[in-house]
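Exam revision sheet. Question 4 asks you to relate a sequence to its structure. Input first:
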Amino acid sequence: MNRKSRRNFLKYTGVGMTAAIAGCTGGEEDDPESDDDAANGDDTSDDSSADDGDDAPDEENEFVFLASNAMDSPLDPALHNGSTEMMAFFNFYDTLIWFDENNEPIEQLATDWEVEDGGQTWVFDIREGVQTHDGNEVTAHDFVYSLERYVEIGLGLSGHFQGVYKNSEARDDYTLAIELENPSGEFINWCVLVHAVDSTVVRENEEDGEFGERGDWGQAYLAENVAGTGPYKLREWRREEELIYEKHDDYWGGWESNQFDVVRQRVILEDSTQQLTMQQSDADMSSDLLAPDIYTALDEEDHIDFISEPVIRLNYHNINTTRPPTDDRQFRKAMIHSIDYDINRENIYGFMEPIAGCLPDQLPGSNDDLDPYAKDEEVALEAFEQSEYTADDVNNMDFACHVFAGSAVGMDSALLIQTAFDDLFGIDLSIRETELSELVALMSDPDTNPHITAGLANTADFPNHDQFLHFMWHPDNTMDNTGHPAGGSYWTDEELTPLLEDARLESDRERRLEMYAQAEEIVYNNYPMFFVGSNPVNYALNANVDGFSYRGAQGTERRVYEMYRTGGGRA
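Answer key, C-alpha cells:
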C-alpha cells in the first residue's frame, strides 16, 4: 500500500482519520529494503521450524513475539536503548531485583538487602547455586564486574548511575556492597537495570580497547554473543529478521511443562502484516507500537485479548535544539503551539491521555500549574514573529522531520506537523522515513540529529522521576554521551542543571517533589520537545497465553519466563 500523501492526509484530519490510519503501512515505495525486511519476516513464519531441522513448530512450547523494528543493535546489556532490546536482556540476563505487580521491589538474584551509612551503602545477599548459561556459578564478583563495566562504558541507561554510583565490592562470594556518592532511599528501584553477565566468560573475551586493563570490557564479544544468567539463552540471531531464544535447562527458577521452551522475536515492520499474523494464530503477542485501529480490529477476534495498561511514559516529538532554526526558543514555541494535539492524541495514537510538561501524571511532583501544550495560532504567530528566522530563511535550509520506517504513528504525526507549518508559517517541512538503527546514529551526533523526530516515547525504566528529568536534561545525559534517544534534544540550562543535581541529594521527600515541579516548569517554558501525551502500553495477546503482567519498568512485561500456555496450543 502506498504511503499516504499530504493531500490525502488533509482529508483524514477529521472523524475519518482513525479508519485511514489502519491501512497506513508506511515507506514501501521509497525504501525497498523495508519490503525485503517485511518479506523476510513473512518467510520466517512459513519455515520457522527449519532452524534445527524440526518437522513443525511445537505451538504449545513456542512463544512468538512480533517486533515493529529490527533488533540489529548489539546484544550487550550495557548498551540497551529501547524496548525491543530490553525484552531480550530481561530474558537473557537476571538482575539484582524485580518488581511485583504493585511496582514494589522484590528479590531476583538478590534474596535480601539492607542499607548502611544512612543509605549511602546498599548490601545485597546474592542467591546461591545460580548457574550461568556456560555453567559457572553467579557470585557477587559477577555483579561487581557487571556494575563497573556498565558505568565505565557509560552508554545506554547508565546515565541513571552517573553521579550516584561510587563503587562496589564483593565482601564474599554471596555478599555485594554498593557504595553511593550520597545517601539514597530510592536506589533499590534502579537495581532492576543491573543485569548480571557471566564475568568469567566476558573476561576471557576482552579485546584491546580504551578501558585500560579491561580493554574493551568485552564489547566486541557481547555485541554478537550472550554471557547470560537468565531463563533463556541465545539460539540464533538473524539481524533484521528474527532473534531466537531457547530455555536454559539449569535455570535456578525451574521449569513447568506449560512454560515456553523457545521464544521467537520476529521482525514484522508492517502493522497490517502483524494484524494478519495474529488473526491467523501464527503469533502469541503483537508489538506495542501498532496503529489504534489495528488493536481495535484484533480485539474483535475471539482468540485474541487486547491488553491496555497505564504506564509511566512520555510520548513526544524530539526537537534538536542545537541547529538552526530549532536552536531558537521562540521558533520552538511557535512550532509547538501550531499543531492540534487533540488530533494527535485521539486520532493518531488513539488511546492517549494529555500530559502537562515532561513528568507523567502517575509520578508525584508533576507540576499541577502547567497546562498541556495546545494549538494556539495567535501565540504561535507572535512567537514566530519574535524568532530569529523567517520563512524564507527556513525554506533555504534542509528542514526535515524524520520518522522510523514502518511507524504509522510517526508518519501521521509528521504529516500533522508538516501541514500546520505550511498553513500557518508558509514553511516547507520535508518528511523522511529512516531505518531505526540509522536514525539512532543520526541522533547521536547533534550536527546530524534531525530538526524533528516524530513518534518517540520515553518509558520509565523504573518508577522514578530521574527518567524524565536528569536523564533527559542534564548535560551528562545528552545523546552523544549516552547513546540514548531520551537525551536527543541536547537542551540543557544553567539554572536547571544544579537544580537537578540538588534534587538527587535532597533527603526530604516533600522538598524533593517541590524541586521536581520547579524543574519541570523550567523545561516546559523552554520548549525543547513537543510533549504530546502519555500512551498506555498496548498489546494483542493470544487468549491461550497467561501470566502477562506490566510492572512499571520498560521491557519487564515481556519476560516470557513468567508467561505460560493454557489449553492445547494457540487459540
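Marking note for examiners. The first strand starts at residue 62 and ends at 67.
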